[in-house]
Design goal:
20% strand; globular
Length: 226
């Protein structure tokens, strides 16, 4: 698959994900590039990640992870971050979730909608999370239900059709993921947070994508175009 460059003739994007850090684990470098160009990016998250840190109560974890997400988002130039209250780790493709997604798309009227990967595996032996799959399928269903659809709907994930070159935005993407410092330090206390973040960003921007050789790139899958 030869990747096409990500479209440039747009002004506003809505990034929809289920959990805090989902964007930073994937496409934050692309978001940083877009906001540097004056494009507007809005984040909407289904939950606050309140059960995401072992040994921490949801009452403590949810606000902490929201703070980390807001700090992380600001690093890549995103000030508009919306949190819903669907239950962490219990996110399903329900009528209620589809309605909230459709309502948000309608209110913001973005040119581009982006969510995460809906496939079963990121790579052989690397299964996708159920919350991710269910949420991405809900975004697709909500998008399809709209009479006035945004021009593009993309997933961020493997086996892509498009790529956004991000050579100059690797360090800011690393800083953005590293802003989830409590979350990362709990899951891997033996590796410095900055090192964890660098490794993850490298995984999602290397090797060069076919058609975009010589560049670090973030991969996207075009799901719909109107």
């Amino acid at each position: 698959m030869v990747h096409q460059p990500f479209p440039t003739d747009w002004a506003t994007a809505l990034v929809l994900v289920p959990h805090p850090d989902d964007t930073e684990y994937g496409c934050a470098a692309a978001v940083a590039k877009w906001t540097s160009q004056g494009k507007h990016v809005h984040y909407a998250l289904a939950c606050r990640g309140e059960v995401g840190i072992p040994g921490m109560s949801p009452e403590e974890c949810g606000p902490l992870r929201e703070r980390e997400q807001r700090r992380s988002s600001a690093i890549v130039g995103v000030d508009n971050v919306e949190f819903w209250d669907f239950p962490d780790s219990q996110i399903f493709n329900t009528p209620e979730l589809r309605a909230k997604i459709a309502e948000t798309i309608t209110e913001l009227a973005p040119d581009v909608v982006i969510t995460l990967y809906s496939g079963p595996e990121w790579a052989p032996g690397a299964p996708n999370q159920r919350d991710h799959i269910e949420f991405a399928l809900a975004v697709a269903a909500a998008y399809d239900s709209l009479p006035d659809k945004p021009r593009w709907f993309f997933e961020h994930g493997p086996y892509g059709t498009h790529g956004e070159t991000v050579d100059d935005f690797i360090d800011v993407a690393v800083a953005s993921l590293a802003a989830h410092d409590v979350y990362l330090s709990v899951y891997n206390p033996d590796v410095p947070v900055a090192e964890q973040a660098r490794k993850q960003v490298d995984m999602t921007t290397l090797p060069p994508l076919p058609g975009l050789e010589g560049h670090r790139s973030v991969e996207f899958i075009l799901k719909r175009e109107c």
